[in-house]
Every structure is written in structure tokens, then in C-alpha cells.
Amino acid sequence: MAREDEESIVDNEQVEEQPEETETQIRGRQDNELELPSGCCMPTSKCHRFQALIFMCLLGFGSYFCYDNPGALQDVFKRELDLSTTQFTLIYSIYSWPNVVLCFLGGFLIDRLFGIRLGTIIYMLILLVGQLIFASGALLDAFWLMIIGRFIFGIGAESLAVAQNSYAVLWFKGKELNMVFGLQLSVARFGSTVNFWVMQPIYDYVSKFYESYRALGVVLLLATITCVLSLLCALILGWMDKRAERIMQRNNNPSGEIPKLLDVFTFKAPFWMVSIICVAYYVAIFPFIALGQKFFMDRFGFTPKQANTVDSLVYLIAAVSSPIFGFIIDKVGRNVSWVFCATITTIGAHLLLTFTQLTPYLGMSIMGLSYSMLAASLWPLVALIIPEFQLGTAYGFCQSVQNLGLAVITNIAGIIVDHSNHDHTWVQLFFIGWLTIAMISTCVIYAYDKKHRGNLNMTPAQRLTFVNSANYQNFE
Questions:
Q1: Does residue 424 sit in helix, strand or coil?
Q2: Residue pair 410/93 in contact by the 8 Å Cβ criterion
Q3: DSSP assignment, residue 256?
Q4: What is the pTM of this model?
Q5: What is the CATH number of the domain that holds 452?
Q6: DSSP string for residues in 330-355
Q7: How many domains does the chain have?
Q8: What pLDDT, in 10s, does the model give residues 210-232?
């Protein structure tokens, strides 16, 4: 940048020796000079990119905070609204059902119509409206209205996650991408952790002024404030990205190809295995945590507050360890190996919680570390497999199949718990079975990538050599 500035000064000093410029040319030259800031104001600088990262991370805070409101108040929901476990799990599964299709469509609309900036704001507004309706349903003791609100909330939240992933790749691909995915997960899961910490105390305080379901409704309305703050972050990040696009004259699709919905069927086998892992791994985490309060109360005799504390440990550890794992993976690479290790250790954590009398803090700590490891290594694989102009579609499809799995598996898990007379062994074996599928899928990715000499399990140096070699061959 210093050299460019010096050259600009020299050009200005020699202007009398050059042909006279028109007024339009002078104005254009001055505009170009204004569009090339220096230091932390330059979009390509590390300082500026990490300023944007702060808002990227905070995009998901409100979504994750409100997503687990029912989990933190499971006993309150069931008591004040007179719900069975199956009805309670419907709150989570109805969140997922619309996204079996709409999340994929949302990602495609980002690629084809909205763009990342407008898409993020639209999905954030949908999320906010859904949470307001959900809280209103609790205020009115109308479970059907709560289900509608949760349905709308799910549409916005999962499509927002697609936009968040696309933002990360757009600003950090080829740089600190693994760490960025880890940090995004860290802040999002910190939102879930704070939810488990504060919702029960807030409910206890509010219940002094309101009774029964009205207290629950007021608490859920207070939780909506986090969504408003996330919307503000979406607006700021949109402004920063528009400015960066103007200054850098960025082109995310140099080939000029138009994304199509059917493009997903042209994706290679590793992408499909990643999609399977998105289902098989996460159904052993999210439904388990959603039902975790009851699990720890029945199996270990904890109070609701103690159960919430240990149940939130996965998210708390993920909030701390995700960026650390992301930083390590950025340095050493080997993403597929990290995914395999994460799956194995998560199976070990479920086995400890189910078949031993060791403190559950040990099993949940291992699960939290494993979950962080997987998120920091799995999601960046999509950016290595799929062209950038199709990333919204690809991430949307991953979110869609994940939501299909969560919608079905959460309901099945609730039914298993209802029919097991407080014996959680069968539902734990159910989760372990899904983790085994994730482990097998990881092995398939490794074998396919090795056979086709791909770059998914390379070190960063090997990957750079691989990409440069491929570019050279394409040039020839």
C-alpha cells in the first residue's frame, strides 16, 4: 500500500507533463484514491477482517440462546404447560421440520437471488418474529401458537447459519478458516451456555411477580432481546461487506456460472459423506442435551439446577476450546483425521455416561472437547469440496439433511424415554449407533480422498502445493 501511495503522489506532481484530464477523469481518479484506505480500514488487512469476525460470530448468539430456552426450563415447560416428554420434544423437532426443505432453499436463494448481506438480514428478521410468537404463545397458554412460533423461528435460524458459514468462507478462505469456524461455534455455544446459566434464575425472579405460564412467557420475551442484538450485528456486518466489495471490486463467481437447485446432484461423494456426518453426529449431541436435564436428574439424582449446570458443560467447553482446535487445525491440517478422532471420543463419552458411575462432568467434558474438534474440522471441508459460487447451496443442503435427522431423531428419542420408565440406557445406545454411522462415513471420505489423491486430509503446505499444481495444469 505504501508503494501505491508514493506512486499516486508522483503522478500528481507530474500532472502538468501529462495530457490534460477531463473533469470526469479527475473525479474518477479521486474516487479511486478514496476507495483505497490503509491500515485497519483496508478490507484485506487482518485487523479489519477480525473486526468483521466479531460481528459474524455475534450473528448466531441470539439464535443459539433462544434455541435452548426450552432445554434450560424443561421442568418448567412440562409443569406449567402440562406437557409430556413427547410434546416437549415437539418444540425441538418442529424447529427442524421446515428446514428439511427451506434451509436448502434458503442457501440457494443466497447464491442466486438475495446475496449474503440481504439474505442474512431477512433470515434474522424471520427468526426474531418466530421467537416473539413463541413467547406470546406461552403468555397465552396456547401451545399451538408456541409451535407456530417455533416453526417460524426454525426457518430463520437455520438459514441464518448458512449465511454465517458463507460469510466465513468469503472473508477467510485460504487464511484462518478452521479457526474462524471454531470461533463462530464458540460464540454461538457461549450463547447456549449463558442460556442454561441464566434462564432458571431469571424465571425464579420473574415468578415472584407473575404466576404460572405467564411467568414463562415473560421470561421468553426477555430472551428475545438477544435476537434484537444479533439483528443489529447483521446490519453492521452487511455494511462492512458492501464496503469491502466496493473497494476490492470483489467477484465471487469469476466463471460466471449461474447456480441451480439441481447442482447438488453433481457434488462428489465426499460431500455426501459430510452430509451424513452432519446428521449422524449431531443427533447424538443436540437431542441428548435437550433431554439432558431429565437424564441427569434420573440417573445421578441431581436437582434441576445441578442438572442444567452439567448439561450446559458441552456448550461451555465448546465456547472455550473451539477456536483453539480451529487454530491447531489451521496449522497442522488433516481435517478428516480430526473428524474421525472427534467421533471416536464422543462415543467414549456416551459410554462413560451410560455404563459407569464416574462423575458425569468427565463424560460431558470429553463430549464438549470432541464436539469442538468436529465442528472446527468438518464444516471447512465443504469449502474444500465445493466451488465458492455454490457454497450457499452446499451449506444449505447440509443444514437441511441435518434438520431432517434432528426432527425425526428427537421425536424418536422422546418416545424411547417415555416408554423406558426413566431408564435412559436404550436412548443412549440409540445415540451411540448414530455415532457409529458417522465414524463409518468418515472412513469412506478418507478412502475416497486417498484413492483420488485429493487434498482433504493434507497439511496446509501440502494443500498449497496441490492447489498450485492444479492451477498450473489448468493454465497449460
A1: coil
A2: yes
A3: -
A4: 0.70
A5: 1.20.1250.20
A6: HHH--HHHHHHHHHHHHHHHHHHHHH
A7: 1
A8: 888 888 889 999 999 999 999 99
